[in-house]
Amino acid sequence: MKYATANEWNHFDFSQAYIQEIQKINGCLQFTLDNVMILPENSQNRDIRQMRANELYFQIHNAEIVQFVEEGYKVYNADGKLMEQYEDKELEPDTYYEMLKSFTDGESCIYALEKSEDTYRITIDACNERTYVLHIAGTRDAEEWNRFLNV
């Protein structure tokens, strides 16, 4: 890869980034993403404007999935009356990687990526019209990509 950063997750805008692939490689959880925005304060961005990258590798080192939640939702009728309500559902650990593979269709996208201490919180809008929140403990992150694209 031509460009690389470490621990600069907050110098990217991952919202609306499409998930192409998710792999567990040597203790790292690697997301291959398209449509990632590179912010002007990124150490590799020589322009003073927002740029974009496709096929960006976002890696979380020493990754361990702490929690994986399928968010609940409410169903209303046309008059605004609540018809059904579904609560958040925590997924079982043995289904984590099977569920992650279902997001690699090119249609699922990241809604938000946040970090608190050593835990990354990734909110994913899946193609099945459901939202998932993935909590991953990790020691650091790394980003790699080949070229900058105009927005």
Structure description:
By secondary structure, the chain is mainly β. It is built from one helix and 15 strands, in the order E-E-E-E-E-E-E-E-E-E-E-H-E-E-E-E. The strands form three sheets. A ten-stranded antiparallel beta sheet has the order 1-15-7-4-3-12-13-14-8-11, with helices on one face. Strands 2-5-6 form a three-stranded antiparallel beta sheet, with no helix packed on it. The longest helix is centred in the middle third of the chain and has 7 residues, at 96-102. It starts with a strand and ends in a 6-residue tail after the last strand.
Helix-strand blueprint:
Elements: E1 3-6, E2 12-13, E3 17-25, E4 28-34, E5 36-38, E6 51-53, E7 56-61, E8 64-70, E9 73-76, E10 82-86, E11 89-90, H1 96-102, E12 109-116, E13 119-125, E14 131-137, E15 140-145
Antiparallel strand pairs: 1-15, 2-5, 3-4, 3-12, 4-7, 5-6, 7-15, 8-11, 8-14, 9-10, 12-13, 13-14
Features:
53% strand; single chain; mainly beta; 1 helix; 15 strands; 151 residues; three-stranded antiparallel beta sheet
